[in-house]
Specification:
single chain; 108 residues; elongated
Amino acid sequence: MDKSGIDSVLAQLQAAASTTAGARKSTRPEEPNSDVDFGETLKAAVDQVNDTQQAAGDLTRAFVSGETDKNLHEVMISLQKADISFQSMIQVRNKLVTAYQEIMNMQV
C-alpha cells in the first residue's frame, strides 16, 4: 500500500471518529450544544459500525465467489476497517460501563 492509500484510510478513520463523537459546531462558542441526543448519537455510531461490517462481509463473499473485480488488497483493507471500527466501539462501550459504575458507586 502506498503513502496516499494510508493517508486516505487515516482520513476516513478521523472522519468516522468525528462523526461518532457527534462533533457539531456551535454558532456561539459559549453556548453548549443542547440539541445533541446521546441515544441518537450512540445509535448512529453503532449503525455505522454495522454498515462497515456488512460491507466488508459482502465484499468478502463477492471476492470468494468471483463476482467482483476487487482485488485481495481491497478486501483485506475493508476487513481491517471493519475490525478497527468494531474495536473502537468496544472501547467506547468499556468507557461507558466504567463511567456508569463510577456514578453508581458515588455516595449521595
